[in-house]
């Protein structure tokens, strides 16, 4: 653990944000394992409080960064499992029409496609597009992004 952080790590959202920022710095420095440890700690401390906005923001940020670390370490399966778990927790805590849920769902489709599972990516992308249309409408940038991603996935899967 980094000596600049409190010994107990802190569960306050500001302490968790500081850890995410430190992990980002470590990741940029190439200290990927040290970054992973901090992201995992933030995720562990925050994911049980996903009904609270600041904790949900921290958990989502930590999970998205951690999945990138896992993929760079060659563990795409763990990255997918991580986002599947986050998405399930978000759906239970705030529903499937919450912005963080919609972002996590889209990112799961992206990671699944990057891992080469095009049929599953296509299924996830279609579900994501459907929810984004319902929540944001057809003309919103998130909906357009999902539509484009689905079209690309279909083209790759053909």
TrEMBL record:
This is Tetratricopeptide repeat protein. It comes from Frankia nepalensis. It holds the Pfam family TPR_10. InterPro entries: NLR-like, TPR-like_helical_dom_sf. PANTHER family: AAA+ ATPASE DOMAIN-CONTAINING PROTEIN-RELATED, ATP/GTP-BINDING PROTEIN-RELATED. Transmembrane segments: none annotated.
